[in-house]
């Protein structure tokens, strides 16, 4: 580690010199308009004026929300330091979720790459662009486990599996923070969110209630947060939801007992936007005074964009309802991060307008974005139509044919104008006299007769039709929840209209969630799930459509057969009357009468232009002990005509536990690249700790008894291999 501790000022001395009001001001985070030197700074109107923040508080505040741009950050920091008597610099924080200016695929898509190295690289590039533009902290990674695609924020997560989410959490933190945050100014501090279990919001509705047992929390929802913290994540953000009846932002059991005492986290805990004051609406605080009391007692160090702390902490200390030591602890944590980032020594850190112009959105970063976009797309269906023949006449039709709305939510510094459009990417692939006929046909949710007819004419003239369909970006993300997760009706009608022409039809989907694909799946000959692929969308998708790249993405969130199944996820419980059991009745089992129980497309699913065959699955033994390991192996061969990458997946089922266990749990995976005719043996090692789970008393251990290992290409298609754990 660098000797930043020796080069920076004594924090205890600074704290001792600060007045109580100055300390409390460090605990508020304000948006850009509050700060002189910002382009739109110093003009507080509308809802922001209602915070009642005066100039003295702004001059002593600790951090800024949503500021980026090297020169603007330098201007604001310089002005601030002139007016802060202790010379305490501001922390610049922002939502750099899946790229800064170079936008990578949304995190749910990144999850579908199953590629930790590329995920880490994407965060490293985002950190470099953000840091040179003046950002110190990113509100990422978002590691909430998600099972309900109605929730708009599933696009921010990497999926429904706790093990895979944990691996991605670690990768993102490594990418953002690097090995030495204090010495490497091209990195930013990471803030894992949303603590805790925000992804379990009832009815898939944002900001809604969460009600989980402690055991469920620990088994499924907490592992990814813990993984991020074990990797050294500097900050944690509270979630908007309740946890065991208490909103997270005022939940002392969750924050003080679990996060701080049990897990030993001593970094900064920040509220989400307005969450401290929202304790009133939740119904656990009568007013802003009580909200401040409960949030501070819960351990929230920074209050984002409400002023309960500034207005009431002083009187709460005076009345002895809060010990000033709690304020001091919070301020010290904030000052410590500023010190670690080197801001006392260089308050501008990496902000550099000249270097910013060279680094941000550079060709190297765009190449990385294209590679990850290629590996994030998932081929959902292919009846011999893909890859496309670049010598034929192709009609590209639909609202995303020439749209730049391919970045997805949380890409606020990205530019839709700079994004590669699908039409441009496809046009660059054509050879000879081939032609690309482009027509919009319909909008996302509306259509005009003239557009429609022009698209039908183009489709009629073409050899193959590519339909570019999906959701616009504000149909997912925060507050982007949908009860009906099918494509908008006008697009479904358009699919039927095109299909009536009898042309080979490929659908490319741009969206932020798993969709109910009724009206699409049965109509299309091929479907490529592109998600929101980012800045290099058009080129990346074209690479896949024309076979210059082979699809290798695998789903990390199940696609429901119908929204009526939701939540539907692979690692569910069996129930006492499972459908399909050998002695199951016809009617009185856990089932729907009108739809299957299974999702349309399961976790781990994805097709390829290669043809992978599995054989010779076996165990090294039918028994394992606490001190021995078990080898699981399978032969994978590429029987196809092109090279491809296969993601081999290992699942385990505990057949008899002290509490019920999931029907399958992902334990490991391997990505193998095989040439045509090539094969390899993929081997996994199972150890006893991988069989542990949380018991009813919350102890974490394994049970002796019968297990099944499953190895295969996804969570449904696999070979079962029974074994026993002997203890």
How would you describe what is shown here?
The protein has 21 helices and 26 strands. The strands form six sheets. Strands 9-6-5-4-3-2-1-10 form an eight-stranded parallel sheet. Strand 14 (464-470), helix 20 (489-499) and strand 15 form a beta-alpha-beta unit. The model is unreliable at 1-7 (pLDDT under 50).
Helix/strand layout:
Elements: H1 4-7, H2 11-17, H3 20-25, E1 28-31, H4 55-60, E2 63-65, H5 70-83, E3 91-94, H6 107-111, H7 116-132, E4 137-138, H8 162-177, E5 189-195, H9 214-221, H10 223-230, E6 235-238, E7 242-243, E8 246-247, H11 252-262, E9 268-270, H12 278-282, H13 288-298, E10 303-304, H14 308-318, H15 324-340, H16 353-359, H17 363-376, E11 378-382, E12 394-397, H18 422-427, E13 436-439, H19 449-461, E14 464-470, H20 489-499, E15 505-510, E16 526-529, H21 537-545, E17 612-619, E18 623-625, E19 630-638, E20 644-654, E21 665-674, E22 679-686, E23 693-694, E24 700-701, E25 705-712, E26 719-726
Parallel strand pairs: 1-2, 1-10, 2-3, 3-4, 4-5, 5-6, 6-9, 12-13, 12-14, 14-15, 15-16, 18-26
Antiparallel strand pairs: 7-8, 11-16, 17-19, 19-22, 20-21, 20-25, 23-24, 25-26
Number of DSSP helical runs: 21
Biggest sheet, strands in spatial order?
9-6-5-4-3-2-1-10
- Tell me what portion of residues adopts beta-strand conformation: 15-25%
Distance between the termini: 42 Å
Q: What is the helix content? A: 25-40%
Please report the total strand number as a whole number. Answer: 26
Mean pLDDT across all amino acids: 96
Question: What is the alpha-carbon Rg in Å?
Answer: 27 Å
Structural class by sheet pairing and helices: alpha/beta
> What low-confidence regions span 5 or more consecutive residues with pLDDT below 50?
1-7
Report the principal-axis shape: globular
How many strands, which pairing sense, and closed or not: the largest β-sheet? 8 strands, parallel
């Amino acid at each position: 580690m660098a000797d930043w501790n020796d080069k920076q000022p004594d924090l205890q001395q600074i704290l001792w010199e600060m007045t109580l009001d100055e300390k409390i001001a460090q605990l508020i985070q304000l948006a850009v308009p509050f700060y002189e030197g910002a382009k739109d700074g110093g003009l507080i109107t509308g809802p922001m004026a209602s915070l009642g923040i005066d100039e003295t508080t702004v001059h002593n505040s600790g951090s800024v929300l949503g500021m980026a741009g090297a020169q603007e950050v330098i201007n604001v920091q310089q002005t601030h330091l002139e007016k802060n008597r202790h010379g305490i610099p501001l922390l610049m924080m922002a939502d750099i979720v899946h790229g800064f200016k170079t936008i990578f695929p949304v995190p749910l898509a990144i999850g579908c790459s199953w590629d930790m190295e590329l995920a880490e690289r994407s965060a490293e590039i985002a950190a470099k662009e953000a840091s040179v533009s003046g950002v110190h902290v990113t509100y990422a990674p978002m590691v909430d486990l998600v099972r309900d695609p109605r929730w708009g924020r599933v696009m921010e997560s990497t999926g429904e599996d706790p093990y895979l989410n944990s691996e991605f959490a670690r990768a993102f933190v490594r990418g953002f923070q690097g090995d030495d945050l204090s010495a490497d100014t091209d990195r930013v501090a990471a803030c894992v969110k949303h603590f805790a279990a925000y992804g379990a919001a009832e009815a898939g509705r944002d900001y809604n209630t969460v009600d989980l047992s402690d055991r469920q929390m620990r088994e499924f929802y907490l592992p990814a947060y813990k993984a991020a913290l074990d990797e050294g994540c500097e900050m944690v953000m509270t979630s908007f939801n309740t946890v065991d009846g208490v909103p997270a932002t005022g939940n002392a059991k969750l924050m003080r007992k679990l996060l701080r005492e049990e897990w030993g986290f001593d970094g900064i805990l920040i509220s989400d936007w307005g969450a401290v004051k929202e304790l009133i609406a939740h119904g656990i605080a009568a007013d802003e005074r009580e909200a401040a009391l409960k949030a501070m007692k819960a351990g929230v160090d920074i209050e984002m964009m409400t002023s309960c702390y500034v207005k009431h902490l002083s009187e709460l200390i005076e009345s002895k309802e809060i010990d000033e030591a709690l304020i001091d602890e919070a301020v010290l944590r904030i000052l410590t991060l500023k010190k670690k980032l080197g801001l006392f020594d260089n308050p501008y850190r990496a902000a550099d307008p000249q270097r910013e112009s060279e680094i941000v959105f550079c060709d190297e970063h765009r190449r990385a974005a294209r590679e990850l976009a290629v590996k994030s797309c998932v081929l959902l269906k292919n009846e011999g139509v893909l890859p496309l023949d670049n010598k034929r006449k192709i009609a590209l039709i639909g609202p995303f044919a020439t749209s730049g709305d391919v970045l997805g939510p949380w890409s606020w510094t990205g530019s839709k104008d700079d994004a590669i459009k699908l039409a441009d990417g496809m046009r660059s692939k054509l050879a000879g006299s081939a032609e690309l006929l482009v027509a919009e046909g319909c909008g996302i949710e509306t259509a005009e007769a003239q557009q429609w007819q022009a698209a039908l004419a183009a489709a009629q003239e073409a050899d193959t039709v590519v339909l570019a369909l999906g959701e616009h970006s504000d149909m997912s993300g925060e507050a982007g929840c949908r009860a009906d997760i099918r494509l908008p009706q006008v697009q479904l009608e358009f699919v039927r209209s095109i299909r009536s022409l009898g042309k080979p039809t490929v659908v490319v989907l741009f969206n932020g969630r798993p969709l109910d694909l009724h009206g699409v799946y049965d109509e299309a000959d091929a479907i490529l799930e592109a998600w929101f692929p980012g800045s290099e969308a058009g080129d990346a998708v074209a690479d896949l459509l024309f076979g210059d790249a082979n699809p290798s993405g695998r789903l990390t969130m199940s696609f429901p057969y119908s929204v009526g199944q939701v939540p539907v996820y692979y690692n569910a419980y069996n129930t006492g009357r499972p459908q399909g059991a050998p002695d199951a009745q016809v009617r009185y089992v856990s089932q729907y009468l009108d739809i299957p129980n299974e999702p349309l497309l399961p976790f781990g699913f994805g097709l390829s232009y290669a043809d992978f065959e599995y054989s010779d699955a076996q165990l090294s033994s039918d028994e394992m002990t606490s001190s021995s390991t078990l080898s699981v192996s399978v032969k994978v061969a590429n029987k196809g005509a092109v090279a491809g990458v296969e993601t081999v997946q290992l699942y385990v089922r505990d057949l008899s536990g002290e509490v019920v266990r999931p029907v399958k749990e992902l334990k490991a995976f391997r990505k193998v690249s095989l040439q045509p005719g090539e094969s390899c043996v993929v081997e996994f090692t199972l150890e006893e700790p991988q069989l542990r789970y949380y018991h009813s008393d919350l102890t974490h251990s394994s049970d002796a008894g019968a297990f099944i290992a499953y190895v295969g290409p996804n969570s449904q298609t696999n070979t079962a291999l029974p074994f026993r754990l002997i203890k």
